[in-house]
Amino acid sequence: MSQEPHVAQAPRQVRAALLTVSDTRTLETDLSGRYLEEQLHAAGHIVTERRVIPDETVRIRAALVELMPQAQVVILSGGTGIAGRDVTVPVVESMITKPMPGFGELFRMLSYHEVGAAAMLSRAVGGLAGQTLLFALPGSLNAVQTAWKGLLGPELPHLVYEVFRQTSSLPRREAGTE
């Protein structure tokens, strides 16, 4: 069975930045960020940067502004719950120009099968901010694994293709590289 044209034209390599939002984690103790970094590398993608920052509106926005020009995708983990300090989602939503409500809906559906009704506590969100895809995930390793295996891992090249296919920004495949 042949691939659909959009899948065949999707880039093999995506530039992604990782941003963990946490008041308690460091690069060494950030299992979710490490997992994402390993999965991106294993899939042949480029991790442009990986950071851990506190759950503060100004710091999250500043980090996104710095990371977005160097990455096609920024994946955030942490700060998506309903506690008072959880400010990742409002910051990300304020920067998104084209929301992808299906991302959060599908994430919660997948999570429901794993954690039951507690899935409603997740405010996972995704969308396009200018020319950069943003995805905000809960910070737990289990949630990040669910998002990677069920949503981001299989679709990342296709998502980037859809963003850039109308522009000359999409890296072209060289002849004979299949």
Describe it.
This protein has 178 residues and is α/β, with parallel strands linked by helices. The relative contact order is 0.19. It has helices at residues 5-9, 31-42, 57-67, 88-95, 101-115, 141-164; strands at residues 15-21, 46-53, 73-77, 98-99, 125-129, 132-137. The chain contains six helices and six strands. The two termini are 16 Å apart. α2 crosses α6 (141-164) and α5 (101-115) runs antiparallel to α6 (141-164). Pfam families: MoCF_biosynth. Residues 17-159 form the MoaB/Mog domain. It comes from Deinobacterium chartae. Keywords: Molybdenum cofactor biosynthesis.
Summarize the structure.
This protein is of the alpha/beta class and 178 residues long. The protein contains six helices and six strands. Helix 2 packs across helix 6 and helix 5 (101-115) runs antiparallel to helix 6.
